[in-house]
Every structure is written in structure tokens, then in C-alpha cells.
Write the C-alpha cells for this entry.
Amino acid sequence: MITIEALGVSEGLVKAKAFVLREPDLSVTKQKVEDVAAEQARVDAAIQTAKQQIEGILEEAGQTLGDEAEIFEAHLMMIEDQDFIDGMKDIIAGEGVCAEYACKVNCDNFQEMFRAMDDEYMQARAADIGDISMRVLKVLKGVSDNPIDTIVEPCIIVANDLTPSDTAKVGTKPVMGFITQIGGRTSHSAIMARSMGLPAAAGAGEQARIIENGDFILLDGCTGEIIVNPAKEDEDEFDRKKAKFDEQRRMLETYRNQKGATSDGHRIIIEGNIGTPADAVRVDEMGGEGVGLFRSEFLFMDRPDLPAEDEQFEAYKQAAETMTDRPVIIRTLDIGGDKEVPALALEKEQNPFLGYRAIRICLDREELFLTQLRALLRASAFGDIRIMFPMISSLEEVLDAKAMVEKAKEQLRAEGKDFNNDIKIGIMIEIPVAAVCADILAKEVDFFSIGTNDLIQYSCAVDRINDKISSLYRPLHPGVLRLIKMAADAAKANGIECGVCGEMAGSRGMASVLCGLGVTNLSMSASSILAAKSDLAHHTYEECVTLANSLLGGVSATENESNMG
């Protein structure tokens, strides 16, 4: 038996066999070969296998993804392109090297050619070349396209980390939970785990490498404790803990159809965070009063092309229709930092979290922004869609973004397309200066939503995905609480709503604290909705205010954490 202490990032207790995802070795070395013809034949065979894989994906995508399937049609055309194939064969013949090396060099050559073109669309095709070349390289090295596709029985995934596309696949497989070596509560894999209601632990570190395929695992997503190949008495104790946890969850069911409110009736709207339209179904099932954050960037990530207007429109429309007349707040493209969009081929930056990201990219790339705004506006004809701009740091950004919305409206009017002309527009308060200047910004928008993940990161100067300094990431830091209070007070003074959509909203015991700070809406992972309603229902509004004031007066995060128990 081995015990690993990690960070519990998604509550729940589960036991199952391990399914270990190891990073495939795709490194390439320049190896000389004697039989050039044999290496060229390997290229032909790999091309055929990769082509069959794409055809299989295309068939499946055509049934489930609609217009999105066009990406795979493009990939099929590229992989059949004779220049692409001959490029690899010529390198093999000219340098007498192995097929793997020729594949990499050929990829680099074609990507360089596309990136040098003036046309932005053609520049984006460099990512397509990278995708199909990686597929061919995997075939040449005998690496499975995606091991998650092979899962057929209940398991707990163990990986270094999971990408959004990995977690999307997880949702279609009998996966009971997962463990990652890196990350924390605000990592994408943790957020997706909570959205899907799967127990998860993160930050297991190098210890996780001792876990082998088939090992029997006990995973406590509440505490982060992982027991590998447990003794019988440990499994029995785990079963007792699980039974107690499950009973507590059943007791929370009484809040499913209740509105968020304190025991004396002070209303707090409890909403859910989603990354895909399908996630809205779970928010609805858990009694969410709307969607407080639709992370639209998940439509753009882990794919070599950009989603077209119609594809985005269908996704936003689906979420709106799922929530019927309840609000769906959709955050415009928030990429950069730790979120990459291959199709944009953004340059690597020394300080990506402080760099070219989010609203800065959208305002700089007008067509990209207009396409999304048009899709959002069109979807607003089918429900209470609201638009939210991320990473706002100045009044000028707000005004420029609103001007783009008006431009999109003018285009749609000219085309005779329906939309809600009075669509509500809000901004995220996640940069400290936005909180300090909230009184100015509140006059230009219909609502605030405080993104506590980044607000804590920026105000405490702590990289939230850096395991070495994770102990410095303190939601209850008095300075953080004061910034939240400033934004909430400015919103109230200007008659607009002020929500919190960061992970702090769904953290245990935080609903009553944020209520006391003056927040009017809380948006969180679907799995946290019932607990947040319960927290509020067990406090009067006066008790919430008293608690919040005591924390505002705290001298340190340590003191506040101690007072919260």
C-alpha cells in the first residue's frame, strides 16, 4: 500500500483501477538509413493509416459536430496533397535519413511557408500542418492517437495533466475520476472535473509516477488523499467515509429546487459555470438559476482552426435554450496566459499572464471579435444571452468593446437577422485597477462579474498554476476581500448586479462571506450549487455581513483562514 498526498480539487470519493496516461515520446533524432526506398515506403504506409484515422473522425464528426466537421475535410485534403507527401520522401532521399526526422523537417518547412504569408487565414493553416504531421509522426512511432479512446471499463485516469479535449473525451467514457501530477483548484482539468461532477486530485507530483496501469486506487477528491493498492482495512475505512459523504450529498438534494437566499430571505442568485453547451444541462439538473460564466474559449482550444460564426451561434443558442428564460452570461474569447489557441499562432511571451491576451487580442483582431459578437447577438434571439468582456483594465477598453458590439448590430440589421437590441453587457473585474476604478466602470455596463482566480493571482503576485508558490494563493487575504468589497459597493451605488464567477464562489463556506461583502450573484461549478444554497440558507443576512466585516478587519490571510475554521 502507498499513500500519496495531493490537493483535492473536485469533491467525491471513488475507487477503481488506474488508467495511466503517459506522455508519448515524440522526440526525433536525425538517424541515417541505408534503405531509402524502405523509409519512403514507411511514409506511404503512415500516410494511409493517418488518412484512415481522419476518415473515421470525419464520419463521427459529421454525425455529431455539424459544420465543425469541415476541419477534418481540410485535413484529409492536406494529407493527400502530393507536395506534402513528396516533401518527406525528398528529404529521405536527399539526406538519407529516417522517416521520423523527415516528417519533422517537412512539417517545419511547410509551417514556415504558411506563416510567412500575408493572408491571416493561410497563416492559420500552419497549425493544420502541425496537426496532421503530428498524426503521421505518431503512426511512424507506433503511438496511439488518443489512449482515452481505448477506455472500456470503469477507471481513474492518472496523467501529468489533461487538456480540454482530453476532458471532453472523458465525458463519453466510464471514467470515475482523475489524478494529475500538476495543477491546482483553478487549473483547467480541475474546473472541468467539477463541471462533470467527477472526483479529482491535482498536484500529486512525481509520486504519481509510481502508479501503474491496473493498480487499484482509492481517491478522495475532498482531501486529495490517494491510496494505491490498499489493505482491506483501508478500503473498509474508505467505504465508511464514502457512505457518509454520499449521505451528506443526499441531504443537499432538498435545495435543488430552492432559490438561493439567506434564512431571512435575502436573495443571492446561484448560477453555474460551463465550458461547453452540454455543461448547461448539468447546471439545470443541479438547480442553477442561470449560467454566470460560459467560457467561450473552450470552443477555440485544442483545434487547428477557428470556429466559424454559425458553429459559435449554434453553441450559444443551445446553451440559451437549455436554460430557457434564465440568463446565460457568455465571456468573449479569453485566451493567452495558460490557454492557447493553435489557429492564432500567438508568439510565446516571457510574461503571458500580463501580455497579449483576452480583450487585448479581441480589440486588436477586429474580424475575430466581430465574428464572435455576431454569433452572440444572433443567439440572443433565443434566450437571455448576456455578453461579458474579460480582463478589463480601463474605461477605454470598455468603450471600444461596446463600439464593436454596435458595429456587429449594424451588420446584422443590414442583413435582416434577429437579435436582442437591448442585450446586457458586463465586464469581469479581475485586474486590481478595475476594482479600484469600479465606480467609473459601473456607469458604462449592466453588470460586474468578479473573476477571483485572476484577481487573487494579480493582487497577490502569485502564479496560480505554479505548485511551488501555491501556498501564497490566498482567497481570504484581507486585500483581496477589500477589492471585492470595492467592486460590490460601486455596483450597488450604480444600480447594477455584481457577481463572482471565480472558483472562490463555489468554495466551501464562501457563499455567506461573499453575500456579506455585497455580491448579488454567485456562479460556480454545477457540483457546488447545492452546497452554496445550503450555506446561505443556514445564515441570516446580518450574520453574513458580520462574518464578512470580521474578515475585512483581519490582519492576515492566516488569521482569516483560522476564523473560518
Residues 63-68 have pLDDT under 50 and may be disordered. The longest helix spans residues 36-64. Residues 12 and 199 are 5 Å apart (CA to CA).
